[in-house]
Amino acid sequence: METILNRIIEEKRKEVIRLKECSQILQNLETDKRSLIQKLQNAKDIAIIAEFKRASPSKGIINNQLEPVEQAIVYEKNGASAISVLTDQSFFQGSFSDLRAVRQAVTVPVLCKDFIIDPIQIDCAASSGADLILLIAAVLEEDELLMLYQYAKSKGLEVLIEVHDYKELEKVGKTGAKLVGVNNRDLTSFHVSLDVTEKLAEAVKSTGAFLISESGIHLQKDVERVKKAGADGILVGEALMKSSDLSRTMQNFRLAQTTEGKL
Ligand SMILES: O=C(O)c1ccccc1NCC(=O)[C@H](O)[C@H](O)COP(=O)(O)O
């Protein structure tokens, strides 16, 4: 079945060829790497990974009026623990220049959000200043996931491995990943449900990894729900890109309480 995810990966294969052709001109942004894991270890509250996302296959244009550096600065001011920057051009209207510009403007770790299938993309992320990368278990075989994970670690990057079901979570095993994202969005059907975090939380936490709940978080009650399930962090794009009062939206997220009344 032809899905958007298949089309994205087909596009990535072409991009990898192009990147390999011009890899020698990668301009290295020399940076001391920043650690999201350390932030999570010291966190008293749920961490927010705030995403810069102009458009997406499921929503079309989300907001293409915002400037990445300005938006990232506001994210940081309002307590974001990390900034996620979409670098895919064809489907999300992002770029490695966005990533590079954001990394130079903030002091928190920056996540390169892309569909990584080859080490050359990790080189690109690292040379653009990324502190961490995303690896999506749904688009990688177990051995590819392990190889890319180890390659990223060898470059000093942290890795967030994204899963959507138990089968994908099994692939994470050998990596020993410390950051596991549960994507509430099914990347094939685009169906979004926070049930996914609730379902997988225990299995993720039992690996000893930090759990990041990704996608479909719009309201304080959504944060409360995933926090109650055990999430250490949330990754939010659309709700922040569309917010007319970012500091209020982010404050609401930070103040979300579990039903036990714990902050
Ligand atoms: O967002 C999409 O439509 C999408 C489609 C295909 C592959 C990935 C996709 N999104 C990537 C993400 O996981 C989200 O950008 C991220 O988790 C934030 O989600 P949201 O808060 O719902 O914008």
TrEMBL record:
Q: Which reaction is recorded as catalysed by this protein?
A: 1-(2-carboxyphenylamino)-1-deoxy-D-ribulose 5-phosphate + H(+) = (1S,2R)-1-C-(indol-3-yl)glycerol 3-phosphate + CO2 + H2O
Task: Give every Indole-3-glycerol phosphate synthase domain span.
Answer: 5-251
> What keywords sit in the KW lines?
Amino-acid biosynthesis, Aromatic amino acid biosynthesis, Coiled coil, Decarboxylase, Isomerase, Lyase, Tryptophan biosynthesis
Which CDD domains does this entry report, sorted A to Z? Answer: IGPS
Which residues fall in a coiled-coil region? 19-46
Please give the family membership noted in the entry: Belongs to the TrpC family.
Full protein name? Indole-3-glycerol phosphate synthase
- The species is Neobacillus massiliamazoniensis
Q: What is the lineage of its organism?
A: Bacteria, Bacillati, Bacillota, Bacilli, Bacillales
Name of the gene this protein is made from: trp1
